[in-house]
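Section: Multi-chain targets

For targets with more than one molecule, the full set of components is provided together so that the structure can be written out for the assembly as a whole rather than chain by chain. Components appear in the order listed by the source. The example entry contains two components.
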Amino acid sequence: MSPGMRGSPPGAHGSSSPREIAVGGVGIGWRPEIDLTIERLSAGVDFVEIVAENVHPGNAPATLAALHERGVPVIPHGISLSLGGTDSLDRSKLARLAGLAARFESPLVSEHVAFCRAGGLEAGHPLPVPRTRAALEVVVANVREAQAALPVPLAVENIAALISWPEDEMTEAQFLGELVDRTGVSLLLDVANLHTAQVNFGADPVAALEALPLGQVAYVHVAGGVLREGVWHDTHAHPVALRILDILEAFAERARPYGPALPGVMLERDDAYPSDAEMAAELTVIRDTVTSTGTGRVRA
Amino acid sequence: MSGREDLAARQAALVAALVAGAPPPPGVDAGRVRVQSAALLRKRGRGLARTEPELAAALGREFGPAFVAYATGRPQVGGAAEDAAEFARYLLRSEHARDAEVRRAARHITLKRLLHRASRHRDAEHPPAPVPAGH
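Its structure, encoded as tokens over all components, is:
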């Protein structure tokens, strides 16, 4: 894909075929604590994502194996590869992602544009990479190495950050766009994290959607969070805020020209699990937000 | 310094500020570093409470303050199981050890860790398949 094509629907150029989606519909992050909830809601669950660090390919939980046997796509999602770090990639973490993709016949795997450790210390959480040319070179090299080691395509996610670097030279959309251009990597677009960036750094989510290569989005994350003392915390432990659903709607409107089917949209819930009814309601609202026609005009 | 070395140094400075009590890297908002540092500590504690529910139940409301007292300025070394064992050893030397349930849960964790190490040592004589990291 040439840099000039980013952000423009393929129809505008008349050369690309419509996007083939890896997963569609509405999904949920599979966690052992909610495996029976997911089982009970399975009519409304089109795909699941698993945390790669917490599932062993040779010893998958029975409820997860059953979903796979029924044909529900399972996407391995790494949380500690540190694609934005300067240490060499941990081959055992890549092998885990590859092993899970083989075990579950996954259409793709995903990770974060982030670093998780540095100077011999673990942060235990994805942290933002300075958006500099030098850091982009590091991420490009790491993504290429990961792609070479994986049997399926890789998608990388924009993270929820509390901290920004004074040396940032690009917006997040520019940084991700260049990464996509140079590696062909897909995007896992987290619309809750666009909201996080708006609250915490004043980054306009609609401007980000306009600048991002939406044709490269493989699937989408949605999650709840909480505002504490002016800082948005992406907790995955609160209901999805209406403002985040607005961003999801803005994404759907802008992604629709790329193909008849939209990429799958997935709810992340990692703690303070609600009742089955509340979880089902959130999934329904997400499905309605993506499928509603909309007015073509979304407030920024 | 090359761009890559400079990046490595900046990232190392941030992680040290977040988990080891080092000063924030120049130019990075100190208030946000404090907020992120506290969030990382809470996340680490929640993870430990989830993998060691008996200890969490024994400590009850004391779990949060006890974990913060243990983990502040004490970066996690090794995996989650090693962190749990370190926390258990810390508790056994603290005033929390006056509670019999806490002592019992903490001893159980340290015992599990020692048994795990012993089995690894035994397996080393017959090299096993590599154990993936990240548990």
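The first helix of chain A runs from residue 35 to 40.
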